[in-house]
Amino acid sequence: MFGNLQILPPDPILGVTAAFRRDPSPNKVDLGVGVYRDEFGNTPVPAAVREAERALIAEQSTKVYVGPAGNLEFNERIVELALGSLAAQLKDRTATIQTVGGCGALRMGAELLHAAAPDSVVHVSDPTWANHEPLLGNSGIALQRYPYYEPKTRSVAFDRMLDHLQRLPAGAVVLLHGCCHNPSGVDLSLGQWDAVADVLDQRGLVPFVDLAYQGFGDDIETDAAGLRLLAGRLPTLLLAISCSKNFGLYRERAGAFAIIAEDAATARAIATHQARTGRRMYSMPPDHGAAIAARVLGDAQLRQAWQDEVAAMVARMKKLRALLADRLSARRPDVDFSWLTRQRGMFSLLGLEPAAISALCSEEHVFMPPDGRINLAGVSDANVDRVADSIVRVLGRG
Ligand SMILES: Cc1ncc(COP(=O)(O)O)c(C=O)c1O
Fold this sequence. Notes:
The protein is α/β, with parallel strands linked by helices. The chain has helices spanning 14-22, 47-59, 72-83, 86-90, 101-116, 132-137, 158-166, 190-203, 220-223, 225-233, 264-281, 288-298, 300-331, 339-342, 354-362, 384-394, and strands at residues 29-30, 94-100, 121-126, 142-147, 149-150, 155-156, 173-177, 206-211, 237-242, 254-260, 347-349, 366-367, 373-375. It has 16 helices and 13 strands. The radius of gyration is 21 Å and the shape is globular. Residues 34, 101-103, 129, 177, 182, 210, 212, 242, 244, 250, 255 line the site of pyridoxal-5'-phosphate.
C-alpha cells in the first residue's frame, strides 16, 4: 500500500537540527532551531512554570477528558493575556478553543475558514515562517503572499504592503505576526498597525493574528499593542496563540485559537464549530501544558515571577543582538549592522547570498536554514567571536 512513497526532503528548519547533530566539529554553532536558549545553550523551563506544574501534579486527582474546548480557565486567561482589558469588553463576541500549540491554533483557524467560506484566501507575509504555508494550506484553503520585508533597508516594506492590502477583495484574510516577525525580526510600528487597521476596516478584510512570541519583543503589553488595536476596531478577528516560547512549554503543545465575531450569537455558533472541528481531528486537546499556563496566569505571585523571567529572556536577546552587531562592526566598520539591534525577538535574516549561507554551514560549522534566518538566542559570550569571524569570512560571497 505504501510502497510507492518516496522519502521526502527534510523540513527546512528541522533539517538544520539534523545536519547540526551530524557535524562532528567541536566548534559547531546552531543558529537554526526556533527555541530560546540561555547562556549555557539550554532551553529552561521557567521557575514559575515548574512551580505551577508541581502544584498541579500534587493536586490532580483524575485524568478524565477535558472536553473538546479544553481547559476553559486557560482559554479565558490566555485570551486575557493577549487582549488585556479589552478581553472583558469582547467576551461575549469571543469564541475560544484550546489547541495543540500555536500550530494547532493556526490549523484550527484554517479548517474553520475553509469550512465556513471555502473560497477565502489567506494572505501571508513575504517572507513568513516556513511552516505557515504548509500548515494552513493543507486544510485546502488558498494562500497568497503580500509584500512585507524590504531587504535593502532591512525594515517593513510598508508602502508596498499597504498598497497591496488596498487592492485585496473584501473578505480576504490577512495573516499578521503579532510581534517578533518570523523570520525577519521586523515588526510594524504602532502607527503602521493603525494604518493597517484602517485599510482592513475600509476594505472589509479580516485579520488573522499569529501571536507566538508575546513578551519576546519588548514586554507582554507592548507586544500585544498591535493586536489590541485591531481587536478594538474590527468586527471580526482570528487569533492563534502559542504558549511554547513565552511559557517554555514547547513539548506540552499548549495554545489557543480564538475568533472575535461580529456579535455574540455568531460567537456562540463558532464555538460549536470549533468543538466539532477538534473532535473530528483529534477529539480533545492535551491538558497538561494549558493547565500549567492557566495556573501561572491565575496566581498573582506566579504570574509576576513568570513575567520577570520572560523579561530576563528578552533582556538577554537584546544584549546578544547588541553584542553580535558590535563584534561584526569591529571587524567590518564599513558595513552597517545596526539593523540587528533594531529588530525584535529571536530572529533576523542575515541577508546573504545562498552560496554564503551554504558556506556558513558547510565550511564554518555555523548552522541556519537556507533563507539565512539566525536565532540570536543561539549566540553566546562564548561563541560570539567565532560567529562574527565566520559571518565576516563569507560576506560578499555569492
Ligand atoms: C510564527 C510562529 N507561529 C506559530 C508557531 C507555533 O508554535 P507551536 O506550535 O510550537 O506552539 C511558531 C513556532 O515556531 C512560530 O514561529
